[in-house]
C-alpha cells in the first residue's frame, strides 16, 4: 500500500541521509502568532525539496529564517553539519544560501550588471573585483542556456528574465542552498519551462533546492520530496513524490479531505447581461466579441500574453478602446474610467492585486472595505459597524488567517493578503465580475471556498468572468470557456466540449 510506505518515509530520521541543510526545532514567533513551531527538516544535496501548505502555514517564514531575515527564538540551523547563526542577511549570503523571492528585488532603472553587483559582497580584503563577478554571473547564466546582455536596463526585461538575474546573483556567489518562493506565479508557460530546466541543472550540480508552491502539478513535475506545513508545524515529509496520491496531499495540507476542489454546481442562466461587440484596443490583434448571461460563469483560457487581461481592461474602462461597444443589461455603456464601471455594476479584480494597491499599514478591515463604490458614494458615509461586520464575514468565509480585522494587512502571509483583496470585490454590489487569475497564490482549501462563493454569485444572477491560465480551474468552474490566442478569441466551448485537449489546441500558437 502506497500510503504505508509514505508513512515509513516520514518516520525515518532525516539525519540518516545526511542532509546538507538541516533545521532542528526551529521556532519563530510574531506577536500573537507562532509562525514556526519546532520545525525540523533536512534538505539533501541534489534534491528539489517542495514545501506546501495553506496560506499562512509558515513557508515564507521558513525561507526568511534561511536568509537571516527572521530570527528563530529556538532551534538550530546547520549547513553541512556546521551550526549557523544568521544574525544578518549578509551572514546567510556568505554561508552560501540564496533566496529567490516572489517579489524580485531588482532596481528597474539599473542595468543587469549593476543589479548583479548590488547583492555582491566584497572579498575578505574588502576589495571587489566587479568585472570578474559580473563575468561569472553572465557566464553561469549562459551555461544554463539564458543569454542576457549585462548592459541592458532591467526594466526592459520580462519577469522571467529578471528572475534569471536573481538566479545569476545566487550563482555568482556559488550558493549551495537555493530557495524559491512561488517562483512561477507570474511566469508564462515558456518561462516556467525554462526555469524548471535551470532548477534541474542546479540540482544535477548537487545544490540543495527548496521550492515553495501552491501548484500541485509542479510538485509532481519537479520535486523529489515534499514537506507539508500546517499552522507553523511540519506535518509530513513525503519521500516518494511519484507514488504520492493527490487527494492525500491535499488532505494533508488542509487537514480534512476535499473530494472535489471545484465542487461545480450547474444552474440555469438568464438573459444576456454583458454584450461585447467588436471591441478593439491595445493588446488585441482582432476585434473581440462575446456575450455573457446573468447567472453564467464564463472562463477565459489562454497562455500568458494572449490578450485576456487586456480585453478585461478594455471592457472595464481601464484602457480606452479604439473601436467597438459594450452593452450592459441592454444599455450601451462607455466607461471613461473604472469608477464609472463600478458605478454601473462592473468590477475588475486585476491579476496583479499586490500592485493594484493594498495599504500595507492599514488594517485588514480597512483594506477589505476600501471599495470604489463606497468611496465614491454620494454621501460618503462610512458605516463602521457594517464594515467590521463585512470584514468578519469574509475573514470567516475565506478562512483569512489574521488575528483580527484590526491587524495590519502587511503582516499577513502573501496568500492571505490576496484573499483580503479578493473579498473587497466579492463584497460589492456588482452585476458583472471580471476576475483575473482570482486564485493565484491562494491555497487549495481556500480556493475551494472561493469557487463556492463564485457559484453563489452566479446563482444570485450575477455574471462572473474568470480569466485563468490554470486549465483545471477553467474546466472545473466555468459553464462555458472562451479561449484566446495572440490577441484574439479563438474558441467558445460549452462545458461539455471544454476538454483539456480542445482548449490547449485553441490556445497554443501554431
Ligand atoms: N512580519 C510579520 N509580522 C507578524 N506576523 C507575521 C509576519 N510575517 C509573517 N507573519 C505571520 O506568520 C504566519 C506565517 O506566515 P508565512 O508568510 O510564513 O505564510 P506562508 O506559508 O508563506 O503563506 P502563503 O502561502 O500565504 O504565502 C502568518 O500567520 C503570518 O500572518
Ligand atoms: Mg508565503
TrEMBL record:
Domain ABC transporter: 21-256, 264-509
Gene3D superfamilies assigned: P-loop containing nucleotide triphosphate hydrolases
Bilayer topology term: Peripheral membrane protein
Keyword annotations from UniProtKB, A to Z: ATP-binding, Cell inner membrane, Cell membrane, Membrane, Nucleotide-binding, Repeat, Sugar transport, Translocase, Transport
InterPro entries (alphabetical): AAA+_ATPase (IPR003593), ABC_carbohydrate_import_ATPase (IPR050107), ABC_transporter-like_ATP-bd (IPR003439), ABC_transporter-like_CS (IPR017871), P-loop_NTPase (IPR027417)
Transmembrane segments: none
Keyword presence, RNA-binding: no
GO cellular component: plasma membrane
Cellular localization per UniProt: Cell membrane
One MF term in the entry's GO annotations: ATP hydrolysis activity
Protein name, UniProt field: Arabinose import ATP-binding protein AraG
Source organism: Paraburkholderia saeva
Gene that encodes it: araG_2
Amino acid at each position: 500500500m502506497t500510503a504505508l510506505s509514505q508513512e515509513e518515509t516520514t518516520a525515518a530520521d532525516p539525519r540518516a541521509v545526511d542532509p546538507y541543510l538541516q533545521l532542528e526545532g526551529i521556532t519563530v514567533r510574531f506577536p500573537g502568532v507562532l509562525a514556526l513551531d519546532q520545525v525540523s527538516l533536512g534538505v539533501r544535496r541534489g534534491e528539489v525539496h517542495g514545501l506546501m501548505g495553506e496560506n499562512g502555514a509558515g513557508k515564507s517564514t521558513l525561507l526568511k529564517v534561511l536568509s537571516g531575515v527572521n530570527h528563530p527564538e529556538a532551534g538550530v540551523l546547520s549547513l553541512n553539519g556546521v551550526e549557523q547563526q544568521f544574525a544578518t542577511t549578509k551572514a546567510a549570503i556568505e554561508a552560501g544560501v540564496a533566496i529567490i523571492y516572489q517579489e524580485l528585488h531588482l532596481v528597474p532603472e539599473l542595468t543587469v550588471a549593476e543589479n548583479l553587483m548590488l547583492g555582491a559582497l566584497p572579498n575578505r580584503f574588502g576589495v571587489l573585483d566587479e568585472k570578474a563577478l559580473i563575468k561569472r554571473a553572465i557566464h553561469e547564466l549562459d551555461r544554463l542556456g539564458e543569454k542576457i546582455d549585462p548592459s541592458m536596463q532591467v526594466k526592459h526585461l520580462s519577469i522571467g528574465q529578471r528572475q534569471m538575474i536573481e538566479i545569476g546573483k545566487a550563482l555568482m556567489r556559488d550558493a549551495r542552498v537555493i530557495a524559491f518562493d512561488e517562483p512561477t506565479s507570474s511566469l508564462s508557460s515558456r518561462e516556467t519551462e525554462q526555469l524548471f530546466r535551470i532548477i534541474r541543472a542546479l540540482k544535477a550540480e548537487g545544490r540543495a533546492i527548496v521550492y515553495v508552491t501552491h501548484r500541485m502539478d509542479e510538485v509532481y513535475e519537479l520535486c523529489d520530496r515534499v514537506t507539508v506545513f500546517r499552522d507553523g508545524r511540519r506535518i509530513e515529509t513525503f519521500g516518494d513524490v511519484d507514488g504520492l496520491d493527490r487527494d492525500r496531499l491535499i488532505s494533508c495540507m488542509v487537514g480534512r479531505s476535499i473530494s472535489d476542489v471545484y465542487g461545480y454546481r450547474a444552474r440555469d442562466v438568464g438573459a444576456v447581461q454583458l454584450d461585447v461587440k467588436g471591441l478593439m484596443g491595445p493588446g488585441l490583434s482582432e476585434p473581440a466579441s462575446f456575450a455573457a448571461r446573468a447567472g453564467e460563469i464564463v472562463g477565459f483560457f489562454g497562455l500568458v500574453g494572449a490578450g485576456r487581461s487586456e480585453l478585461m481592461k478594455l471592457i472595464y474602462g481601464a484602457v480606452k478602446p479604439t473601436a467597438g461597444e459594450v452593452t450592459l443589461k441592454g444599455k450601451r455603456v462607455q466607461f471613461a474610467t473604472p469608477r464609472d464601471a463600478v458605478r454601473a455594476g462592473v468590477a475588475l479584480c486585476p491579476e496583479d492585486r499586490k500592485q493594484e494597491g493594498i495599504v500595507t499599514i492599514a488594517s485588514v478591515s480597512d483594506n477589505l472595505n476600501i471599495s470604489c463604490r463606497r468611496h465614491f458614494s454620494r454621501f460618503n458615509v462610512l458605516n463602521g459597524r457594517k464594515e467590521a461586520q463585512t470584514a468578519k464575514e469574509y475573514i470567516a468565509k475565506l478562512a483569512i488567517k489574521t488575528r483580527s480585522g484590526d491587524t495590519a494587512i502587511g503582516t499577513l502571509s502573501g496568500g492571505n493578503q490576496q484573499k483580503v483583496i479578493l473579498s473587497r470585490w466579492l463584497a460589492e454590489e456588482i452585476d458583472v465580475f471580471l476576475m483575473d487569475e482570482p486564485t493565484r497564490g491562494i491555497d487549495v482549501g481556500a480556493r475551494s471556498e472561493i469557487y463556492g462563493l463564485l457559484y453563489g454569485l452566479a446563482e444570485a444572477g450575477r455574471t462572473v468572468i474568470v480569466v485563468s491560465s490554470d486549465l483545471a480551474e477553467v474546466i472545473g468552474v466555468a459553464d462555458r470557456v472562451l479561449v484566446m490566442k495572440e490577441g484574439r478569441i479563438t474558441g467558445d466551448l460549452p462545458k461539455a466540449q471544454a476538454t483539456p485537449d480542445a482548449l490547449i489546441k485553441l490556445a497554443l500558437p501554431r
